[in-house]
Amino acid sequence: MVDAAATEEVLLQDREQPFKGLFLEEQTTARQGAMLILPDLDRGPDEAAVARALRLHIPTQGWSTFSLELPGSSQPFTEDGYGRLIIACRRRIRLAFLHLLQRGYERIVLLGHGFGALMAVSWASVDKENLPEGIIALNLIPYHPPSGEVPLMEHLKKIKVPILDLYSGKSYQRVTRQAPARKRAGQLSGNPMYRQLQLEYADHDFNPYTPVLLRVVRNWLKSLPLEQQHYAPGATEDSPPPSVHAPAEAASIWRG
């Protein structure tokens, strides 16, 4: 883990209000890229269970982290309110992505948890100008799309960059029940770099298996192609996805 005192608080300006992100530079001589972390709904960029654990650990692997403050659910959950929330989240993701580009990062991975995972997937499917290196979706929460939005499965079918769809066996039922449909959508996309894994006995926040979560994220990052592209070198639609190895001592708690 990296000392949290090394964190740089960055203030970005949205059209409605400023918002912050917590930036932590990579701690190795070989820079790999940057990870943009999107927390779950109504959780801050330093919430302990997932965002803080990842943002303080991943820099030891050569990846800088930028944990973002997403809009809260102050809007009533009407169709209009939910639609405005999604649009506001996408604006913030785009601003944070551009900020990392301005810092010189060419390889940027999106990692989202819960609602943050939904926003990562939906943003990557609609923003054609800014292509992430890959997406890690932790306990990806489905939604009832408001007017003008497409269903989650349609978003997944459009994405061609590597995706790790990692979910917990004890997460919310709406996450676990839709896992087979997400897997089918990933396969229908023709993306050989889509991979789904289940951590069977963890809860929505991956308790008590945070060390396992960190290890599988590390291994997935190592599996990424060195150059940003839709598929690994030489891969075809029939190629198998890259292996993401769980630690041997935890093999019995994984389903992949």
Structural features, described:
This protein is of the alpha/beta class and 256 residues long. The protein has one domain: Alpha/Beta hydrolase fold, catalytic domain (Rossmann fold), CATH 3.40.50.1820. Helix content is 32%, strand content 22%. It has seven helices and nine strands; from the N terminus they run E-E-E-H-E-H-E-H-E-H-E-H-H-E-H-E. It has helices at 48-57, 79-102, 115-126, 152-158, 173-176, 179-188, 210-223, and strands at residues 8-13, 18-24, 33-38, 63-68, 108-113, 134-138, 163-170, 194-203, 254-255. Strands 1-2-4-3-5-6-7-8-9 form a nine-stranded mixed beta sheet, sandwiched between helices. Helix 3 links the parallel strand 5 (108-113) and strand 6 (134-138). Helix 2 packs across helix 3 (115-126), helix 3 packs across helix 4 and helix 4 (152-158) runs parallel beside helix 6 (179-188). The longest helix has 24 residues, at 79-102. It is globular, with a radius of gyration of 17 Å. The model is unreliable at 228-254 (pLDDT under 50).
